[in-house]
Here is the input.
Amino acid sequence: MKIEQIYTGCLAQGAYYIESNGEVAIIDPLRETKVYIEKAKANKANIKYVFETHFHADFVSGHIDLAKATGATIVFGPNATTNYDIYSAKDNEVFSIGDVKIKVLHTPGHTLESTTFLLIDENGKEHAIFSGDTLFLGDVGRPDLAIKSDLTKEDLAGMLFDSLRTKIMPLSDDIIVYPAHGAGSACGKNLSKETVGILGEQKQTNYALRADMTKEEFVKEVLDGIAPPPQYFSKNALMNKSGYASFETILEKGNVPLTPEAFEAIANKENVLILDVRPQKDFLSAHIPNSIFIGLNGSFAPWVGALITDLQQPILLIVPEGKSAEAVTRLSRVGYDNTLGYLEGGINAWKASGKETASITSISAAEFANRFKKNTLNVLDVRKDGEYKAKHIESVQHFALDYIDKNMNEIDANKAYHIHCAGGYRSVIAASILKARGFHKVTDVAGGFGAIKKTDIPLTEFVCPSTLS
Here is the structure.
C-alpha cells in the first residue's frame, strides 16, 4: 500500500494518491491531472477510482478530466447530483483498490454531500481517514457553503456536530487524519500548519471534538468569527457540480504569446483586464497603465478569486519569463478560464516598442516613520480584521483588501495615501487597484506592518476585556 499527499501551497490543498497491487484511487485531485496520470504510469498501475469528498468551493477539481483520461469512476458520497456521470455511493459502502478497501462515511455538515473516506489496509485494519473539509487539524469545515440549500448554517452546523460524533470520534485514536486543507484555507477558521495528523491528538486538542460539548455550544463556537466566504466559492462549487471545459483546452487557449502590438489591440477592447503576476518590486518599478498586480509569489489563486468577480473576465497576462503556463494553470484552478494570452518579452518588450509605462512609489518603513512623525498622513491598512484588531497604528483608516470594492466610497481619489499590509504583498495589490481607478497619489510601505512595528510609530494593541481590571 502506498499513500502520497500531493500538497499545493497556494491553495493550502491536499490531494491524495493511494495505490495497492496495481490499482490506484485519487482523492480530491487538482484541475491539472498530468501528475496523477504520470505517477500511476511510472508505477505501472491503473487509476480505478476518483473519490470526491464534496463539491469543493475553493478550487476546481480535476475529477472530470481525470476520469475521461483514464476511464476511472468518479465517486461521490450520498446526496451528490451532477450534470455528468458519477457513482453516488451509499453510506458505509466499501470499494476495493488492490488489496486495500475504502469505506464511505457520509459526514454531512460542511455540505450536504460531504463524505469522509476510511482506508482499511491489507490486514483489515482501519488505517486512515481522508476527511475532506469535515475535519481539519485544529478545526472543522465551515457550515455555510451548501449550494442552493434551504437549510441554515445553524442547521448544517448541527449536522456537522452529529457527523463528527457518530462517524469520526468513535474511530480508533491511532487513525491517521489526511484533511483536504491546511493553514491558509478560507474553508475553516484556525487550521493547523501541519497537513497530516493523528485522530487521538485531534480528540485532545481540536475544540470541535471536545467530548463534553453540547450541540448548542458546538454550533455557537463553529459559527463564531466566520468571515463571509470569498465570492468565488459558490461559483467554483457550481463548476464542480455542473462540469467545466477541459484543462488542456484552457491551457492551449491562454498560453499564447502576443507581440506588444497584438497585446495592446486586445487590451483596448472593452472589459479586458491586464493582470500582472510578476514580483511586486518589478510591478512597482514599471507596469502597463491600468494593469492590476496579483503576484504568483504570493497566495495568487485565492486573491484572484477574492478580487476578480467575474469568472468569465477576459484576462491578459504580464508574467515573469517562462511562467506563462503556470499563470494560466493557477488561474484555471479557481475557475478563471478566459485567459487570452501573455505579453511576449514582458515589460521590456513593451518599453522597447515605445509604449507607456507607469510606476508606484514604495518607501521603507523607516522613511514612512519619518514622514509619519513630521506630517499628518492618510494611512490605509488593508490587513484582515483580526490582524488589524490585534495591533495597528493609531488613528489610521482600515478595511481588508478582500472588501476593497465595498469600501471605495470611504476613500478620496484627491487625497494621498500610504498603504500597508502585513508584509508588502497585499498593499501592492491594493495600490494597483486604486491607481487603476484614478488614485494617483498612492505610496506603498515596503515590508508592511512587520517592518513598521520595528520603528517608533505609536501602535494600539487590542486588550481582551477579561484582562481589564
User: Anything to note?
Assistant: The two ends are 59 Å apart (CA to CA).
